[in-house]
Amino acid sequence: MWFAEYLFLERSWAKDENTLKWGLQRLKDFPRPFWLALFVEGTRFTPAKLLEAQEYAVSQGLPAPRNVLIPRTKGFVSAVSVMGDFVPAIYDTTVIIPKDSPRPTMQRILKGQSSVVHVRMKRHAMTEMPESEEDVSKWCKDIFVAKDALLDKHLATGTFDEEIRPIGRPLKSLLVTLFWSCLLVVGAVEFFKWTRLLSTWQGVGFTAAGLALVTGVMHVFIMFSQSEHSSSARAARDRVKKG
């Protein structure tokens, strides 16, 4: 599966490369400061995808990853080649959930339950990047090898062993959340006043049934969106059982 997916991406890249570069070049005249997030692994991390990445690494003579996937560097290389003259730096970001903290699933977020997340960021000046595309690709792959070792260390010690800067709860995010919460509450109250749904028992029953249906559908979608419930994760568990 890994090899088929990898070859498909290779074939489609030739068609999309010029479009991507054109889009990135347009950011040069963007009127405001911006961040461009590149998810170089290209897909979410699951046990099945990790196993596929390890098999691919062995077949290519690459270091077998333990905590990350092998980066797909073509998009990253294009971004560096196009944006190198107007983007000052690259921030290498590593995110991990400590062992003693529950994962921040969508279900927990909707319930208002918090989780601890450790984020490590390292700045690399664009002027320090290699010049050739091959060297930029190798630089990115080496970053992921180092990232893999860093995650090994965190799993063993519970820390990145670097300066910790708690960011707290940003006031701006709190104000935005309060604003939208108030707007939704006021809108809901006015809607029920206008429709008079709550003025009769029939309307109350209809409203309750509608809320129950929406809640049930959301719960199903949330459960199936979790990586441990994906088909890839189930396939990995089946492989382990068959051993």
From TrEMBL:
It comes from Avena sativa. This is Uncharacterized protein.
